[in-house]
Each structure stands twice: as C-alpha cells, then as structure tokens.
Amino acid sequence: MSSNNIEHELGALKEAVAMALDYARELGTSDAEVAISKQQGLSVSTRLKEVETVEFNKDGALGITLYRDGRKGSSSTSDLSPEAIRQAVQAANDIARYTGEDSFSGLSDKELMATEFPDLDLYHPQDLLPETLAELAIATEDAAMSADSRITNSDGASANAHTGIKVYGNSHGFLNGYASSRYSLSCVVIGEDEQGNMQRDYDYTVSRKYGELAPAAEIGAKAAMKTVGRLGGRKIATTKLPVLLSPEISTGMMGHLISAISGSSLYRKSSFLQDSLGTQLFPEWFNIAEQPHLLAGLSSAPYDSEGVATKDRDIISAGMLETYLLTSYSARKLGMVNTGHAGGIYNWTVGDSGQTFDELVKAMGTGLIVTEVMGQGVNMVTGDYSRGAAGFYVENGEILFPVEEITMAGNLKDMFRNIQAVASDRDYRSAIRTGGILLDEMKIAGN
Known about the structure:
Elements: H1 3-26, E1 31-47, E2 50-68, E3 71-77, H2 82-96, H3 130-145, E4 151-170, E5 175-192, E6 198-207, H4 216-230, E7 239-245, H5 247-260, H6 263-267, E8 288-290, E9 313-317, E10 320-321, H7 328-334, E11 348-350, H8 357-364, E12 367-374, E13 384-395, E14 398-411, H9 412-417, E15 419-422, E16 432-433, E17 437-445
Parallel strand pairs: 7-12, 11-16
Antiparallel strand pairs: 1-2, 1-4, 2-3, 4-5, 5-6, 7-17, 8-9, 8-11, 9-10, 12-13, 13-14, 14-17, 15-17
Helix pairs in contact: 1-2, 3-4
GO molecular function, one term: metallopeptidase activity
Protein name: Metalloprotease PmbA
InterPro entries: Metalloprtase-TldD/E_C, Metalloprtase-TldD/E_cen_dom, Metalloprtase-TldD/E_N, PmbA, TldD/PmbA_N, TldD/PmbA_sf
C-alpha cells in the first residue's frame, strides 16, 4: 500500500474510532476506549519444492470498551458503517449495565498518555505476487535438500508478507494510529542416517523490511546443517553438568522471567518472583534493557495498547529487578504505577559478557549445549523447571556427539542467579534479543 493510500486508510480508521467515542459520550458513560486493527497478508507454503498452499487474508475489527460506574462492557464489529458502530457502542453500554463492579478497571491515567509519536520506521510495504513468494520458498527448500545427501525429506518452507494498521483512542482525548509490516521465511527438513534414524530441524528469518530477509540459500543451508548435526543422537548417563543454552532456548528462558514479573501473575500470587522488586535475581554483571523506540524493531511501539507512552527502561540492572510489567488494571490492583506494558514487552536486549557462543563452548569445558526443549514442565508458582531436552555433549571444549531423550531440571531462581556468561552474538529475531546463556550446572536425567 502506497504512502498516500496508507494515510487515507489511517484517516478513515481514526474517523471510525472518533465516531465510536462520540456515540459513547452521547450515552453518558464515564469512560470509553476504542481500538481498531486491519491486517492483510499473503502466505505461501511449499513442500518438496511444490506449492502446497497459498493463503491471502484481509480482516479487521473495531472493539469498544465502556466503563459505567465501575462496570465494564465490551463489544466489537467488523462493519465500520456508522449504524454498525452505533449498535456496537450500544451493545457495550447494555453489557456494562449488568456486569459486576470492579474499582480497579478503567482507562489508564490521563497523564500517562503518549503525547509524542515518533516515526519508528515500522512500515515498509512491498508489492509481492504469490509466484514471488513461492519461488522464494522453493529456493529455500532446494538449498536445504541439496546441501547434504542425508537430507532425505522436507516438512516444507513458508514465505510470508503481512501489513497492518492499528488505531487506538479513548475519552481522555487520545487518538493515534500507525502502520507496520512484517516478512518472514522459514524451512523445515528431515535427515536420515545409515541406520534409518531420522531427525528434523529448521531455520528462519524475519524482518520489517522484505529486502533485509536473510537469503533463501542461507536459510536452507542452515536448516540442513542443524538437521544433519542432530543425526546419531544418544542419551547420556544421569549427572550434573554446565549447560549452554542456544540463543533460541535462552529467549524462552527470559520468557519465563516476563511471565513471572507480569502484573497479572503478581496480583494473582501465581509467580515465583512475588515481592522481588529491587532484589538481586541475577549476577551483578547481568543487565536487560528495554528499548521501545528502536527503528524498525520487531517489537517497537510509541505507546502500548492502552495509549500509555512507552519509554526506555532498565528491566534488570546490575542483576537487580528494577521494574514489574504493569498495565492500568494490574498497577491498581498492586497499588503501583502503570509501566506501559499492556500488550507485551518492547525490544529487550540482554547484556553480554563479551565472549562469542563458540568461545563459551570452549570455556564450558565439559557440559551440554541445549538446542531444543520439550514439554511444559515449568511451575510458575515455585519456579521449578523440568523439561525434555536435546543438544550436544561437549568435552574439553569440543562437541563430541548429539544428545537426545534427556531431561534437564532445576529451579528458575537458581538458574537466573547462576548464569555464568551471555554470548555477544545475539539472535535478533524476536522481542528478546539475546545470545546463548551459560548456566553453571543443571541436573541431567538420562540413562
């Protein structure tokens, strides 16, 4: 969509939001908020270098929430005609008359609303035909299948292009919107050794800009290399070992931190980090910074889904927890200040300890590289952690063989506290930007 068209579309959606807020005001409600999103996308998947599916989607909806004397009512409509919007507002108002009172609900405080809206370089439209994405996916599969004779099958490749617009407004007078784009390419292949044992693995790339996706040949070759590397996996004896988490698994570990310090977990008392604000959770050298305004960042945003301004902040500083992640509701429940995290986090960057991943492998000496975890064995109330795992056994700083069908166990508090190092070569493909994390010791259950 061209810049002129996107401005026209943004203007039309803002008008729809403003209309809904006007209708809500006419009904005499105390507060109202309206969010609208429109997305369109094209996805092409292939298998064995043949097109398997082509999907085009275009959808959107307006959602309105009204607050009336501590009661809340919500409604939505995909029809943006004035009459449909009026009916949606009336429905939300009717619902609010019968819901239970909740003194903690309501809009975020007016003084927290964003007043500056920098261009974060999130929207990069690219006119793409299904044939173009099909060629890209097929090229990725072709690179993977031809990389090694042990790659015998494919679980497919997928190329995707999506754009969207979000507009939010509320009765504080806030009304703003922006457009964004996202492109991705992935491939999954299957390898087989001489004994007939099979493994699979994948690789992917994602970016706001189509032209900045990693080349198809690179993604295919990496998928093949990772798959072949897992062939010949074996168990090891039950023991305790240092563990080096790959960047992808390190991202998951930090995801548990997000869950534990989110307001909803805290006010429900379902977090192992209850009452941990200002306490030492990590080594003194460990830091996590949040940067919501990174240009073209995958998780950049000028404000959260309640209109609250986002800002740079330290999540972990010198190993100490500096903030919880709070929405308006959870902040009121906890008697704290809203941190602008309605809708998630924004570009966390985990500080590193100066070594590359390969250097950490050598520094670890004898231990495990974990590249995959399985199962749901994480208790967010106690922090107990027990998950199936696969990866590679390392001795004297050298990878000896792949490992599978093991379980690694510990407690997340101990895992956080006993991080030994974080690799400097980060994975930038998600909201959590981190390198591999070296843990001093985990319980390993094997043979």
